[in-house]
């Protein structure tokens, strides 16, 4: 099936052609017709699945130019809000739909100006609520309400704001909910705030042909040296090294830099402007290796990320899925490499139990053992259970 076969508006088809979207992805094939028909939709959405276009295309089609704000899209972070707005702008270009992006930590004035002209608003819950309270967003006029990455919004403490905003919406609006998981609080929102919704499940499936996953079993003391060796050996175009802790991310980035690798850290402990600058530099390929924590890297959408390195395995299996979703985007190839030491085995087993991924073990190659300098942090505290990991094959 191609986008032309879906009977979409000409202006949208032209925009899609310009950005070289030919065939709809699986979630787009399922969600676009349902949303166009006016159904509420709950989609279990994997990152990199094309979910932004899945709700963005029918929304752009539905809104009427010059009739004020008709669609509200909530996002957990400013980065995601900007990214989603940017993506929707790509296929609303020819229709002339205007999108306002609203998020906290920055001045109200330009955002208020944008809201006056916009048909679609993308924003983080706190600022959206402020704008409603100040009268710059008028809930009765909104007929499409999207909760994107809804589980993450709950994780980030936005539950009350989400409920508050949902309560302001007109009863007969259309609600679209996109989430990787379905925590209990979300079940409540789903029951209370939506009509009979259609459900789309796409599960966390990765395409083994384009995304290869490997793991190495290695003592923690040698992890950094192996990482350095692999980065030198694989020469990734752009890569993200995921760490479980902020300090660890800083230390790994600093040690990589000291070894001549163009690396930078990205985590929630950094000021917003520094985070944004780092993401921009990574987009512009002025940074080759981004050393990040899960929250900070959520939603980063850079096409040429060829490698994901897991310096540790996240306690939450879904975070692993989100991490590897940063590579092999939109049909490109990618490699995800996990470095496991004793502390990681429980979490790794959880990943394997939750998803039926094909993650192959690789014997560590010969590599030089380098010094890893730690800065004011005692990693011995992080030592986990002593149980040995049983190899699967
Ligand atoms: P998302 O899951 O919305 O973050 O999208 C992941 C990536 O896939 C983004 O870079 C999109 O621009 C791209 N993408 C989404 N849909 C398509 C499509 N039908 N054809 C090609 N690329 C797409």
Describe this structure in words.
This protein has 393 residues and is an alpha/beta fold. It is built from 15 helices and 14 strands. It folds into 2 domains: 3-201, Rossmann fold (3-Layer(aba) Sandwich); 211-392, Rossmann fold. It has helices at 10-18, 26-36, 51-62, 78-92, 108-117, 125-133, 150-155, 159-168, 184-193, 220-234, 246-258, 272-283, 294-297, 317-324, 345-354; strands spanning 40-44, 71-74, 99-102, 120-123, 144-147, 174-179, 197-201, 211-217, 238-242, 263-266, 289-292, 305-310, 334-340, 359-361. The strands form 2 sheets. A 7-stranded parallel β-sheet has the order 3-4-2-5-6-1-7. Helix 2 (26-36) packs parallel to helix 3 (51-62) and helix 3 (51-62) packs across helix 4 (78-92). The model is unreliable at 377-393 (pLDDT under 50). The structure holds adenosine monophosphate.
Task: Give, in spatial order, the strands making up the sheet with the most strands.
Answer: 3-4-2-5-6-1-7
CATH fold-level assignment of the largest domain: Rossmann fold
Average pLDDT score? 88
Query: Ions, cofactors, ligands: which are bound?
Result: adenosine monophosphate
SSE class: alpha/beta
| Main β sheet profile | 7 strands, parallel
Helical region count? 15
Into how many domains do the coordinates divide? 2
Tell me the β content.
15-25%
Which spans of ≥5 residues are poorly predicted at pLDDT below 50? Answer: 377-393
Element string (H = helix, E = strand): HHEHEHEHEHEHHEHEEHEHEHEHEHEHE
CATH class category of the largest domain: Alpha Beta
Q: What is the CATH architecture term of the largest domain? A: 3-Layer(aba) Sandwich
Helix percent band: 25-40%
Number of beta strands: 14
């Amino acid at each position: 099936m191609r986008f032309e076969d879906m009977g979409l508006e000409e202006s949208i088809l032209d925009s899609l052609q310009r950005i070289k979207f030919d065939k709809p992805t699986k979630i787009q094939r399922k969600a676009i017709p349902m949303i166009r028909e006016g159904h509420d939709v709950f989609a279990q959405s994997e990152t990199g699945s094309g979910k932004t276009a899945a709700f963005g295309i029918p929304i752009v089609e539905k809104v009427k130019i010059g009739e004020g704000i008709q669609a509200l899209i909530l996002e957990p972070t400013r980065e995601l809000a900007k990214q989603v707005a940017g993506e929707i702008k790509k296929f609303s270009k020819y229709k002339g739909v205007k999108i306002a992006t609203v998020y906290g930590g920055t001045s109200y004035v330009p955002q208020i100006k944008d809201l006056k002209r916009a048909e679609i608003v993308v924003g983080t819950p706190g600022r959206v609520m402020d704008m409603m309270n100040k009268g710059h967003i008028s809930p009765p006029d909104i007929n499409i309400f999207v909760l994107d990455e809804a589980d993450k919004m709950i994780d980030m403490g936005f539950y009350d704001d989400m409920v508050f905003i949902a309560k302001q919406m007109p009863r007969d609006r259309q609600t679209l909910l996109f989430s990787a998981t379905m925590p209990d609080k979300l079940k409540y929102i789903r029951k209370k705030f939506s009509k009979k919704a259609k459900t789309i499940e796409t599960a966390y499936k990765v395409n083994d042909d384009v995304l290869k996953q490997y793991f190495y079993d290695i003592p923690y003391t040698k992890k950094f040296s192996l990482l350095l060796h692999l980065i030198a050996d694989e020469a990734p175009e752009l890569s993200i090294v995921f760490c479980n802790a902020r300090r660890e991310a800083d230390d790994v980035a600093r040690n990589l830099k000291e070894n001549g690798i163009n690396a930078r850290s990205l985590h929630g402990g950094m000021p917003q402007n520094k985070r944004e600058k780092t993401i921009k530099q990574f987009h512009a390929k002025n940074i080759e290796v981004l050393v990040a924590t899960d929250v900070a890297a959520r939603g980063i959408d850079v096409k040429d990320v060829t490698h994901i390195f897991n310096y540790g395995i996240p306690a939450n299996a879904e975070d692993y899925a989100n991490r590897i979703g940063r590579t092999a985007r939109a049909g490109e190839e990618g490699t995800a490499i996990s470095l496991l030491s004793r502390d990681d085995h429980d979490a790794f087993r959880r990943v394997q139990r939750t998803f039926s991924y094909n993650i192959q073990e690789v014997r560590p190659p010969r590599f030089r053992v380098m010094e890893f300098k730690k800065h004011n942090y005692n990693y011995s505290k992080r030592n986990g259970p002593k149980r040995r990991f049983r190899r699967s094959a």
